[in-house]
Amino acid sequence: MAGRKSGSSLNQSFERVGVIERKGYRIVKYRYEIVPGFNSVALLYEPDQLTPNMPAVLNVNGHGPGGKAVEHKQKRCINQARHGMLALSLEWIGFGELASAENAHNNIGLLDLAGANGEGLFYLAMRRGLDFLYNDPRVDRKRIAMTGLSGGGWQTMLLSTLDERIGPSIPVAGFSSLTTAVEHPEYAGDAEQNAPDMRSIADYAQLMTLRVPRPTLLIYNSMDDCCFRAGVVKQGVYDDLRPFYTAAHHPDNLQWYQNDDPGTHNYQLDSRLQSYRFLKNQFHLQTSAEEEPDTDAEVLSEEDLIVGLPKDNLTIVSLAGKMAEQIHHNRIQPSEMDKARGSLRSITRFKTVDVTHAWPISASHEKGIESRGYRFEFSNGLSATGVLVQSSIGSAGKTAILISDKGHLSLAVEAGNLLSRGYRVLLLDPILFGDSIPGTPERPNLSSAAQMLNTVGERPLGIEAAQIAGVAQWLSDSNTDGSPSPGAAKPAAPYSGQKMEILTRGPRSEVVALVAAALEPNHFSSFGAEEGIHSLSELFNGKFSYAESPELACLDLYRVFDLNQLIDLAAPTTINFYEGSQTPIFWR
Q1: What does DSSP say about strands 355-366 and 254-259: parallel, antiparallel, or unpaired?
Q2: pTM, entire model
Q3: With b meaning 16 or more CB within 10 Å and e meaning fewer, what string describes 472-505?
Q4: Chain segment 239-248, per-residue pLDDT in tens
Q5: Rounded (5°) CA angle 365-370-374
Q6: CA distance 99 to 91
Q7: Residue 13: count of CB within 10 angstroms of its CB
Q8: β strands within 110-215, DSSP E
Q9: Which site in 141, 263, 552, 566 is 20 to 30 Å from 433, CA atoms measured?
Q10: Contacts of 464 (CB under 8 A, 6+ apart)
């Protein structure tokens, strides 16, 4: 991600497309390029009377229909222009003219996978707008502000923190501290708000201290029906920051306003008036801070404000696909194995874990089948669940671990077939799978939990793979009666030293298990994948869903490895791919 920038001559990338004359102001339509082939649009609201050294405001919008044409955004841009400011309104990726399924925000996981941190695309989109204002000869470079609601509030916080060209900043209901996000998973937001490693470097609360002593007005809503309710977030985004402004001898430069009318997730009149008054004071304007009485009548339709984009304009998905097409993988030679495993460990942040306690939480013995349910606690404090089943009639002395994208209950047929052949079978749900997904069945927190792990420097893929390897070691070392009491002698392990067979269903479990086998090949004898993929490149062709497969959005993974390279590292493990799922063979 780019950091602070003093400005550059990028205005030539803004193409003037048209103008709409209005009462007391005009709207100039622009098209601009974020990265080659990926264009966006913007509207510049100009006062009728242009003067030298004008203040300017960068306006960004958040999640919601209408994009740049959303009513409350139009109204504040109109009034900013009528109050003597240049108001630049940017479209946001995924909304308005950029609305498409391929621009859904969580698709940036594909950019991560291909080796480009997807948040950078969002950052560049808004920084291009700031560059445009900064290089406009009519703009007073010392008087540039930024504001937006929700995702626009997040953009405002991020850009105005990292780029010192922005003075006054007014983020509205746009972000919370990491502590609040962990305590309230519903506040996590989309993937761009939790970029890989970002909060391992600095949480948003710490980032905000970089604004000291620049003037900041935080607006939150008392009864927010979306996210970031004022009373929940205030400690982390305001109270914790006040001492820094006080220490800089500018305590009044950090202001807090709680909107009660209507108090929901909004940037309506009450909050807009607060923003006008704040900007008037900071920019030393001699104009009114009230909203013009005819503002409602000035709002235009979404169609009126269309700028127009090229028919072949890139999307997040197609941009990621273009990047992926440039990536080529060579098979890993025996002399390169150790180096390649080190690279895979680094990319997936894989850290070996042990089962420190296996809790038998259920047990049954019926129709010749013994079953035990476990909660596995690992040495890193995380846990997983599993059900171990085996026949009491006879044993083939082999063990298989079964994992499914849909959870262990979907593997009854595979388990039955293996039991009929005398196997003992562990149906495993690693963390973020099946019963081990945080939250409730009605409201699972798969996506938000993965984002929180990702942004604090972990990788869900590496954590899940380590759990599989740890459980494989436990199955080999333990007698499966549960963990012994502290101080008790460790009982004999009848399967000591045994290598495990592993079978997966679906691309999530396939890739996770392949990473486990690639990094700990001594634990496994064979690997089989049902309903999987043959290459990570397939994810760039419509098979990827962050909400369903967040661990596959692993930064840099495809840039360095594809499945063939993981298979090379898993040697001598036998690898098999099955096109469909199994049908019952030996049991009824």
Answers
A1: unpaired
A2: 0.93
A3: bbbbbebebeebeeeeeeeeeeebeebbbbbbbb
A4: 999 999 999 9
A5: 110
A6: 10
A7: 15
A8: 139-149, 169-172
A9: 566
A10: 430, 431, 432, 433, 512, 551
